[in-house]
Amino acid sequence: MTKIDDKVEELLAKHPNLTKLEAINILTEKNERKKKKREEKTDRSNAKKLRNEANRPERDDADS
User: How confident is the model over 2-24, as pLDDT tens digits?
Assistant: First the structure.
């Protein structure tokens, strides 16, 4: 069994009134939400890094 099959079986065991197709759809939607959240977090992190680099003063290696 694959990882997704295991998750589907766990969900069906917890909620026996669901069909297998409904369980698969629930997990697919959950995975898409998680993926979107991760992408947004990465975008915020990258924007923050760019902002910090822009605010950092330039260093001259000759002065050190």
Answer: 888 999 999 999 999 999 999 99
Residue identified by tokens 């069994």 is 1
pLDDT for residue 12? 96
Paired tokens of 53: 């680099």
C-alpha count within 13 angstroms, C-beta hemisphere, residue 20: 4
User: What is the value of pTM for the model shown?
Assistant: 0.68
**Pair 29, 10: CB distance under 8 Å:** no
Residue environment code for 28-56, b if the CB has 16+ CB neighbours within 10 A, otherwise e: eeeeeeeeeeeeeeeeeeeeeeeeeeeee
- Coil vs helix vs strand at 42: helix
Token digits for 7?
């998750």
Contact predicate 27/20, CB 8 Å: no
